[in-house]
Amino acid sequence: MSARRLGALLAAVLVVGGGVAIGLYVALFLEASPPPVQAAVIGRRVAALELQTVAEVGHGENSFWVSYYARTPGHKWVHSTILRVPAYSLVHVTVYQYDSATGLRNPLWGQPRGVVGGVMYVNGKPVKVLNPELASHTFAIPELGVSVPLPGVDEEAPNQCSNAPCTLAEAHNTITFTFRTRGPGKYRWQCFVPCAAGFIFGFGGPMQSIGYMDGELEVQSS
Ligand SMILES: [Cu+2]
Fold it and tell me: How far is ligand 1, taken at its centre, from the CA of residue 106, in Å?
Protein backbone atom coordinates (compact mmCIF):
# COMPACT_ATOMS: atom_id res chain seq x y z
CA MET A 1 0.00 0.00 0.00
CA SER A 2 1.37 3.39 -0.88
CA ALA A 3 2.08 5.88 1.89
CA ARG A 4 -0.59 8.13 0.43
CA ARG A 5 -3.24 5.40 0.49
CA LEU A 6 -2.24 4.40 4.00
CA GLY A 7 -2.57 8.04 5.06
CA ALA A 8 -6.04 8.29 3.51
CA LEU A 9 -7.08 5.03 5.18
CA LEU A 10 -5.84 6.21 8.58
CA ALA A 11 -7.66 9.52 8.15
CA ALA A 12 -10.88 7.64 7.29
CA VAL A 13 -10.47 5.39 10.36
CA LEU A 14 -9.96 8.46 12.54
CA VAL A 15 -13.01 10.25 11.12
CA VAL A 16 -15.28 7.20 11.54
CA GLY A 17 -13.84 6.42 14.99
CA GLY A 18 -14.26 10.04 16.05
CA GLY A 19 -17.84 10.03 14.80
CA VAL A 20 -18.62 6.86 16.73
CA ALA A 21 -17.00 8.29 19.88
CA ILE A 22 -19.00 11.53 19.62
CA GLY A 23 -22.20 9.55 18.97
CA LEU A 24 -21.53 7.38 22.01
CA TYR A 25 -20.79 10.43 24.14
CA VAL A 26 -24.06 12.10 23.09
CA ALA A 27 -26.03 8.86 23.60
CA LEU A 28 -24.56 8.37 27.09
CA PHE A 29 -25.20 12.02 27.92
CA LEU A 30 -28.83 11.78 26.81
CA GLU A 31 -29.30 8.54 28.71
CA ALA A 32 -27.77 10.05 31.85
CA SER A 33 -29.88 13.18 31.53
CA PRO A 34 -32.55 13.37 34.26
CA PRO A 35 -36.26 13.57 33.35
CA PRO A 36 -37.82 17.02 32.83
CA VAL A 37 -40.06 18.31 35.61
CA GLN A 38 -42.96 20.53 34.62
CA ALA A 39 -43.81 23.61 36.68
CA ALA A 40 -47.41 23.72 37.92
CA VAL A 41 -49.54 26.20 35.94
CA ILE A 42 -51.49 28.19 38.52
CA GLY A 43 -52.91 30.97 36.38
CA ARG A 44 -52.73 32.74 33.06
CA ARG A 45 -48.99 33.19 32.48
CA VAL A 46 -48.26 32.21 36.07
CA ALA A 47 -46.48 29.02 37.10
CA ALA A 48 -45.05 27.59 40.31
CA LEU A 49 -41.90 25.58 40.86
CA GLU A 50 -40.88 23.71 44.00
CA LEU A 51 -37.27 22.75 44.56
CA GLN A 52 -35.18 21.45 47.43
CA THR A 53 -31.45 21.39 48.07
CA VAL A 54 -29.93 18.53 50.01
CA ALA A 55 -26.49 18.17 51.63
CA GLU A 56 -26.19 14.67 50.18
CA VAL A 57 -28.41 12.43 48.11
CA GLY A 58 -27.96 9.68 50.71
CA HIS A 59 -28.23 6.68 48.39
CA GLY A 60 -27.15 5.37 45.00
CA GLU A 61 -24.00 5.89 42.95
CA ASN A 62 -23.25 9.46 44.10
CA SER A 63 -24.63 9.07 47.60
CA PHE A 64 -22.42 11.81 49.09
CA TRP A 65 -23.10 14.42 46.40
CA VAL A 66 -24.93 17.62 47.18
CA SER A 67 -27.99 18.11 44.98
CA TYR A 68 -31.14 19.90 43.94
CA TYR A 69 -34.46 18.04 43.61
CA ALA A 70 -37.61 19.23 41.84
CA ARG A 71 -41.28 18.49 42.54
CA THR A 72 -43.87 17.58 39.95
CA PRO A 73 -47.34 19.18 39.92
CA GLY A 74 -48.45 15.80 41.36
CA HIS A 75 -46.23 16.53 44.41
CA LYS A 76 -43.65 13.84 43.66
CA TRP A 77 -40.01 14.76 44.31
CA VAL A 78 -37.75 13.87 41.38
CA HIS A 79 -33.95 13.82 41.29
CA SER A 80 -33.79 16.28 38.40
CA THR A 81 -32.73 19.82 37.51
CA ILE A 82 -34.41 19.95 34.09
CA LEU A 83 -37.25 22.39 34.68
CA ARG A 84 -40.03 23.16 32.19
CA VAL A 85 -41.72 26.53 32.51
CA PRO A 86 -44.02 28.58 30.24
CA ALA A 87 -42.65 31.51 28.17
CA TYR A 88 -43.38 35.16 29.03
CA SER A 89 -44.70 34.15 32.43
CA LEU A 90 -44.17 34.76 36.10
CA VAL A 91 -42.64 31.79 37.89
CA HIS A 92 -43.12 31.58 41.66
CA VAL A 93 -40.29 29.51 43.12
CA THR A 94 -40.24 27.83 46.51
CA VAL A 95 -36.94 26.30 47.62
CA TYR A 96 -36.77 24.09 50.68
CA GLN A 97 -33.15 24.47 51.69
CA TYR A 98 -31.89 21.54 53.83
CA ASP A 99 -28.11 22.01 53.50
CA SER A 100 -25.88 24.08 55.81
CA ALA A 101 -23.91 27.19 54.73
CA THR A 102 -20.70 27.11 52.68
CA GLY A 103 -20.44 30.85 51.88
CA LEU A 104 -20.20 32.83 48.66
CA ARG A 105 -16.92 33.52 46.83
CA ASN A 106 -18.34 36.84 45.65
CA PRO A 107 -20.33 38.83 48.25
CA LEU A 108 -22.21 40.57 45.41
CA TRP A 109 -24.22 37.37 44.99
CA GLY A 110 -25.64 37.89 48.49
CA GLN A 111 -28.18 40.20 46.88
CA PRO A 112 -31.18 38.59 45.21
CA ARG A 113 -31.21 39.82 41.61
CA GLY A 114 -33.47 39.49 38.63
CA VAL A 115 -36.45 38.72 40.89
CA VAL A 116 -39.73 40.60 41.11
CA GLY A 117 -39.39 43.46 43.61
CA GLY A 118 -35.69 42.68 44.12
CA VAL A 119 -36.67 40.65 47.13
CA MET A 120 -36.78 37.07 48.34
CA TYR A 121 -38.62 35.76 51.38
CA VAL A 122 -36.86 33.58 53.94
CA ASN A 123 -39.33 31.72 56.14
CA GLY A 124 -41.89 34.38 55.22
CA LYS A 125 -39.67 37.42 55.96
CA PRO A 126 -38.52 39.73 53.14
CA VAL A 127 -34.72 39.76 52.59
CA LYS A 128 -33.01 42.23 50.24
CA VAL A 129 -29.45 41.11 50.95
CA LEU A 130 -28.04 38.00 52.62
CA ASN A 131 -24.81 37.87 54.61
CA PRO A 132 -22.63 36.06 52.01
CA GLU A 133 -21.27 33.71 54.67
CA LEU A 134 -24.73 32.28 55.25
CA ALA A 135 -25.30 31.11 51.68
CA SER A 136 -25.56 27.38 51.13
CA HIS A 137 -26.40 27.45 47.40
CA THR A 138 -27.60 29.92 44.82
CA PHE A 139 -30.33 29.52 42.23
CA ALA A 140 -29.01 31.43 39.22
CA ILE A 141 -30.09 31.75 35.58
CA PRO A 142 -27.29 33.95 34.16
CA GLU A 143 -29.06 34.64 30.84
CA LEU A 144 -32.10 36.06 32.66
CA GLY A 145 -30.01 37.95 35.23
CA VAL A 146 -31.55 35.83 38.00
CA SER A 147 -29.41 35.08 41.05
CA VAL A 148 -30.84 34.16 44.44
CA PRO A 149 -28.73 33.21 47.47
CA LEU A 150 -30.19 30.43 49.64
CA PRO A 151 -29.42 30.62 53.37
CA GLY A 152 -28.17 27.36 54.88
CA VAL A 153 -29.66 25.67 57.93
CA ASP A 154 -27.88 25.80 61.27
CA GLU A 155 -25.44 22.87 61.51
CA GLU A 156 -26.56 22.34 65.12
CA ALA A 157 -30.26 22.23 64.26
CA PRO A 158 -31.94 18.96 65.29
CA ASN A 159 -33.45 16.65 62.67
CA GLN A 160 -30.96 17.14 59.82
CA CYS A 161 -31.90 15.42 56.58
CA SER A 162 -29.44 12.80 55.32
CA ASN A 163 -31.50 10.93 52.75
CA ALA A 164 -33.17 12.76 49.86
CA PRO A 165 -35.83 13.74 49.12
CA CYS A 166 -36.10 15.49 52.48
CA THR A 167 -39.41 16.10 54.23
CA LEU A 168 -40.81 19.19 55.94
CA ALA A 169 -40.29 17.47 59.31
CA GLU A 170 -36.53 17.90 58.80
CA ALA A 171 -34.51 21.09 59.47
CA HIS A 172 -34.89 23.54 56.57
CA ASN A 173 -35.31 27.14 55.47
CA THR A 174 -38.06 28.00 53.03
CA ILE A 175 -37.10 30.59 50.41
CA THR A 176 -39.60 32.05 47.96
CA PHE A 177 -39.15 34.48 45.06
CA THR A 178 -40.61 35.21 41.63
CA PHE A 179 -38.89 35.69 38.29
CA ARG A 180 -40.13 36.36 34.78
CA THR A 181 -39.38 34.14 31.79
CA ARG A 182 -38.64 35.39 28.28
CA GLY A 183 -39.17 33.59 24.98
CA PRO A 184 -38.98 29.83 24.39
CA GLY A 185 -35.58 28.20 24.54
CA LYS A 186 -33.11 26.44 26.78
CA TYR A 187 -31.53 28.47 29.54
CA ARG A 188 -28.76 27.06 31.68
CA TRP A 189 -29.14 27.48 35.43
CA GLN A 190 -26.79 26.59 38.23
CA CYS A 191 -25.52 27.13 41.77
CA PHE A 192 -22.52 29.42 42.22
CA VAL A 193 -21.56 28.42 45.77
CA PRO A 194 -18.47 26.15 45.77
CA CYS A 195 -20.57 23.53 47.54
CA ALA A 196 -19.02 20.31 46.18
CA ALA A 197 -17.31 19.01 49.33
CA GLY A 198 -14.30 16.82 48.57
CA PHE A 199 -13.71 18.28 45.07
CA ILE A 200 -11.02 20.74 44.03
CA PHE A 201 -12.04 24.30 44.98
CA GLY A 202 -15.51 22.85 45.68
CA PHE A 203 -16.38 23.14 41.99
CA GLY A 204 -16.10 19.56 40.67
CA GLY A 205 -18.47 16.58 40.73
CA PRO A 206 -22.01 17.75 41.50
CA MET A 207 -21.12 21.37 40.66
CA GLN A 208 -20.55 20.39 37.05
CA SER A 209 -23.31 17.81 36.71
CA ILE A 210 -26.80 18.30 35.38
CA GLY A 211 -29.19 16.72 37.86
CA TYR A 212 -27.18 18.00 40.85
CA MET A 213 -25.99 21.64 40.95
CA ASP A 214 -26.42 22.39 37.24
CA GLY A 215 -29.65 22.40 35.33
CA GLU A 216 -31.62 23.51 32.33
CA LEU A 217 -34.65 25.72 32.23
CA GLU A 218 -36.75 24.64 29.25
CA VAL A 219 -38.94 27.62 28.44
CA GLN A 220 -41.87 26.53 26.28
CA SER A 221 -44.43 28.53 24.37
CA SER A 222 -47.78 28.35 26.12
CU1 LIG B 1 -24.65 24.41 45.41
Answer: 14
Q: Order of strands, edge to edge, in the sheet holding 37-38?
A: 37-38, 82-86, 214-220, 185-190, 135-141, 146-151
What spacing in Å lies between the alpha carbon of 65 and ligand 1's midpoint?
10
Task: Supply the Cα-derived Rg of the chain in whole angstroms.
Answer: 20
Q: Say how many Å lie between the CA of residue 222 and the centre of ligand 1.
A: 30
pLDDT value of residue 22: 64
> How much distance in Å is there from the Cα of 199 to the middle of ligand 1?
13
User: What's the gap in Å between 137 CA and the centre of ligand 1?
Assistant: 4
Query: Averaged over 172-198, what is the pLDDT?
Result: 97
- Smallest CA-to-CA distance from 62 within 79, 49, 77, 46 is with 79
Dist. CA 42–CA 49, nearest whole Å: 10
- At 158-167, the pLDDT tens digits run 999 999 999 9
pTM: 0.86
The predicted structure's pLDDT at residue 26: 58
Q: What mean pLDDT is predicted for residues 9-35?
A: 68
- What region, left, alpha or beta, does residue 123 occupy, with left being phi > 0 and alpha being psi -120 to 50 degrees? left
Buried-exposed string 50-64: b where 16+ CB fall within 10 A, e elsewhere: bbbbbbbbbeeebee
